[in-house]
């Protein structure tokens, strides 16, 4: 599967030179024999500053660290949580994300976390909270602006980030408060309100009577840190209504939230567009940097 879905033929994104670039990248992916993530990682600038750094006691409690140029003044600290349906994924697959953000002036931690069937809800939230605490504790030593710690995630990772921002018990368990300690949260194509569960998700999230507490929208009371929800309108994996409903609930409670909806963009495309090779597909990186107030946010 390609790591992006180009915009539909009705969208101006696929016309003229941009359309030829989409097709050219698609052809390169197909001809290379590499995995999509492997190719994007191979094209990414070298920004890794540390690999397999422990943030907790378990085998999957490790993260990779990416840093900007040394002359970058007071960069934000970003914890990026990857997707994979809570059943797959690894930090190594997302080197292109860490490198892209670091190249633009961010310090980035990409942690692994426990996945099903090793563990289900809420273990992955506990792990993400522990990784966030590591970033919080080390941000000054790494040279980050101590007031600018952000969570960012795609798909299942966006769910994890939203739950940490909205359900205060998870960061509370590591002595953090979302509204106090997080400068913001960026959710990319996240599921935030997805009951009833599909059959394949039921073993991950547990008994029917507890499912309401697994939904980020259940905890949207307006007392959240600033949130940016990015969503492709052509997403066939996560209904774009998830972002609309969560944003509406947060606004009803008086909380800070922004949304961006990208016409013709699918579930993988919106994350693949963080890569330098695919940045023309959607303004995912630019909008994220603007939200975090990084440089001039020219992506």
UniProtKB/TrEMBL annotation:
Q: Which protein is depicted? A: Alpha/beta hydrolase
UniProtKB keywords: Hydrolase
Keyword Hydrolase part of the UniProt annotation: yes
Any one GO MF term held by the record is: hydrolase activity
The record's section on InterPro entries has: AB_hydrolase_fold, BD-FAE-like_dom, GDXG_lipolytic_enzyme
Is Hydrolase given among the entry's keywords? Answer: yes
Q: Which residues form the BD-FAE-like domain?
A: 63-249
The species this protein was found in: Teichococcus wenyumeiae
């Amino acid at each position: 599967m390609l790591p992006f879905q180009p915009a539909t033929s009705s969208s101006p994104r696929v016309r003229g030179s941009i359309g030829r670039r989409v097709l050219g990248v698609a052809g390169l992916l197909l001809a290379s024999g590499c995995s999509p993530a492997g190719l994007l990682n191979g094209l990414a600038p070298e920004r890794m500053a540390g690999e397999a750094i422990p943030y907790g006691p378990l085998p999957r409690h490790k993260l990779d660290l990416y840093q900007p140029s040394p002359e970058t003044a007071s960069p934000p600290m970003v914890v990026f949580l990857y997707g994979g349906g809570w059943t797959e994924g690894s930090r190594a697959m997302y080197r292109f994300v860490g490198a892209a953000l670091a190249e633009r002036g961010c310090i980035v931690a990409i942690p692994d976390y426990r996945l099903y069937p090793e563990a289900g809800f809420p273990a992955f939230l506990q792990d993400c909270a522990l990784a966030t605490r590591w970033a919080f504790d080390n941000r000054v030593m790494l040279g980050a602006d101590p007031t600018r710690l952000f969570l960012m995630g795609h798909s299942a990772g966006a769910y994890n980030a939203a739950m940490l921002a909205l359900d205060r018990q998870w960061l509370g368990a590591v002595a953090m408060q979302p509204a106090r300690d997080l400068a913001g949260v960026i959710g990319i194509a996240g599921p935030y309100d997805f009951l009833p569960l599909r059959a394949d998700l039921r073993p991950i999230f547990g008994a029917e009577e507890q499912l309401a507490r697994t939904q980020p929208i259940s905890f949207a009371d307006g007392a959240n840190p600033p949130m940016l929800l990015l969503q492709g309108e052509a997403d066939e994996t996560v209904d774009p209504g998830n972002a609309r409903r969560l944003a509406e609930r947060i606004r009803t409670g008086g909380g800070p939230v922004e949304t961006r909806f990208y016409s013709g963009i699918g579930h993988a495309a919106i994350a693949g567009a963080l890569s330098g090779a695919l940045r023309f597909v959607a303004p995912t990186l630019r909008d994220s940097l603007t939200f975090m107030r990084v440089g001039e946010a020219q992506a």
